[in-house]
Amino acid sequence: MSSTNDIRRSFLDYFESEGHARVPSAPLVPQNDPTLMFVNAGMVPFKNVFTGLETRRYSTATSSQKCVRAGGKHNDLDNVGYTARHHTFFEMLGNFSFGDYFKERAISLAWTLITREWGLDPSRLLATVYHTDDEAFDLWKKISGLPESRIIRIPTKDNFWAMGDNGPCGPCSEIFYDHGEHIPGGPPGSPDEDGDRFTEIWNLVFMQFEQEANEIVGNLPKPSIDTGMGLERIAAVLQGVHDNYDTDTFKALIAESGALTGTATTGANQASHRVIADHLRASGFLVADGVLPANEGRGYVLRRIMRRAMRHAHLLGAREPLMHRLVPSLVAEMGGAYPELVRAQPLIEATLAQEETRFRQTLANGLKLLDEATGGMKPGETLPGTVAFKLYDTYGFPYDLTEDALRAQGFGVDRLGFDEAMAEQKAAARAAWKGSGAKASEDVWFDLAEANGSTEFIGYTGTEGEGEVV
Ligand code: ATP
Ligand code: MG
Ligand code: MG
Ligand code: MG
């Protein structure tokens, strides 16, 4: 059985042997795109190469890119612990052609890697194409020999990618793996496609058109390729399990979380251990890339991730800070591929220990308040927004933590009421500010503070300028 570390290496070796430059992962904080909260796809560091703003010494490249999808348009936070295939932090393996090869070689390289190098059974594989992309449909037929019934035409945005309203765009083609009848879920394009049976493992994007104001205005002079494959998903396939959380890396982290809390890792505790393992990775990698917990912006996304894991640790019965004690196993699993994790280990541990110590001062009382408030509620009812706001304001519970805490009992949260309570508090702060008499400039200050997003909302309403997929 190949380890996740072997699989990453094997992907990069393969594309290097096919002439691609091997490019290290860029940091999670985007260097070239201020509208984007975190790098969320392998192509992000290459955006300017695709648009032609920047040139490199190579025309094809391969990378394993650190990605976080926990805010903005791509938010997989709520899936974590509940689907077999979503993480907040994951690695996207990719190969890229900057005006070099196009559809035929992209499909052929992908098919050869998964079926010949890695030996996947073609009868388990399906491909999707954008409904109008006959060229891709025919190429799949020719190259893979898949029957037409397993080359599925998809008419939705899922199979059309755009960098934004302006710039490169084009159809994409996704490769799915069928984990078998015993897993619930339908094939791509079917009503129950969201199950875990048919897992999307690889997305090939064919950049071939130019867009202006959301309209296609012509062909790109040099069509390009951008692909993204989830390392954790392909590791599950190659390790013969259907669930990412049963792969070697996650099993090691979850075993450690079980050992340190003295709890079983299956049954009722399963989701908690998964959330802890996932959020440990996200927290470790974000701190290693210079993000620290804060009350706004990127730092607040990190704080939300950390505190959510910390509530689950509490749920498992941890009476002392736990997360920092898991860092050595994270470094043991992933420090070889990402030396920045080794270098930052002391900082990651100290940051987690401090955050958990702080949060634990209010966590138990907050949970008590939550218990009291939900005491008379029936499943399907929603917690009043004012209570969620008090938990946020007084007890340091990020909104989505409250939501996550109530999910198991089938309760929702009144989001509108929460927003109103937040707006009221802001208005009150503004009214209470008598200040120095220099009224006009103080108004400007408040406006600036709001315009710059010095509230905690950026984490989940942050704007992102990038397109839908890879
Ligand atoms: P899904 O439909 O499963 O949410 P996606 O279409 O949003 O995936 P893409 O944007 O196409 O994903 O990203 C390329 C690849 O990255 C996917 O094919 C998948 O293998 C992987 N991937 C995407 N999101 C996640 C995630 N949250 N956790 C782990 N892997 C992911
Ligand atoms: Mg998705
Ligand atoms: Mg998808
Ligand atoms: Mg996709």
From TrEMBL:
UniProt entry keywords in alphabetical sequence: Aminoacyl-tRNA synthetase, ATP-binding, Cytoplasm, Ligase, Metal-binding, Nucleotide-binding, Protein biosynthesis, RNA-binding, tRNA-binding, Zinc
Cofactor-binding details, from the entry: Binds 1 zinc ion per subunit.
GO biological process terms held by the UniProt record: alanyl-tRNA aminoacylation; negative regulation of DNA-templated transcription
Domain called Alanyl-transfer RNA synthetases family profile: residue spans: 2-470
Places the protein is found: Cytoplasm
MF term (GO), any: ATP binding
GO cellular component terms given for this protein: cytosol
EC number: 6.1.1.7
Reactions catalysed: tRNA(Ala) + L-alanine + ATP = L-alanyl-tRNA(Ala) + AMP + diphosphate
Cofactor: Zn(2+)
Role of this protein: Catalyzes the attachment of alanine to tRNA(Ala) in a two-step reaction: alanine is first activated by ATP to form Ala-AMP and then transferred to the acceptor end of tRNA(Ala). Also edits incorrectly charged Ser-tRNA(Ala) and Gly-tRNA(Ala) via its editing domain.
Domain observations: Consists of three domains; the N-terminal catalytic domain, the editing domain and the C-terminal C-Ala domain. The editing domain removes incorrectly charged amino acids, while the C-Ala domain, along with tRNA(Ala), serves as a bridge to cooperatively bring together the editing and aminoacylation centers thus stimulating deacylation of misacylated tRNAs.
Family assignment from sequence similarity: Belongs to the class-II aminoacyl-tRNA synthetase family.
The protein's name in its UniProt record: Alanine--tRNA ligase
Shown part of the complete sequence: 1 to 470 of 883
